[in-house]
Amino acid sequence: MFSKGSLLANTTLTSQIVLMNSEGASLASDSAVTFGDDRTFNTVNKIFPLGGEDSGHKIAFMISGGARHAPTGLLWERIFGLFYEECVKPEQTDFDTVESYAEGFIDFLNEEHNLPYDAPSNSLNIQESLMNWFWQFPPVQEKMKEKQVTTEFEKVIQLDYERLDIKLPASKNLNEFLDYFEGVLQKADKELGSDNEWKQRILRIEDKHDNSSKFVASLLTDQFNLSPKRARRELLRRMFNFHLAMTYNTTHTWSTSSTTIAIVGFGSKEIVPTMFQLNSGIISDPEYGCASISANFVIRNRTTLEDMADHRLRCLECGASLNQHLEPDEMPVCDDPHCAGHGRQKLALHSAPAFLVPFAMSSEIQNTLNGLHDDLRFIYSPRRKDIHRGRMNFPKTISEILTKGIIEELKDVSGIGPSLLGKVEEKFNQSLRDNIEGSIREVLHDHVHTRGEVVRRQKFRRVVMGLPIADLSAFARTLVNLQASINYYLEPVQSVGGDIDLVSITKEDGFQWVD
Question: What is this structure's pTM?
Answer without folding.
Answer: 0.83
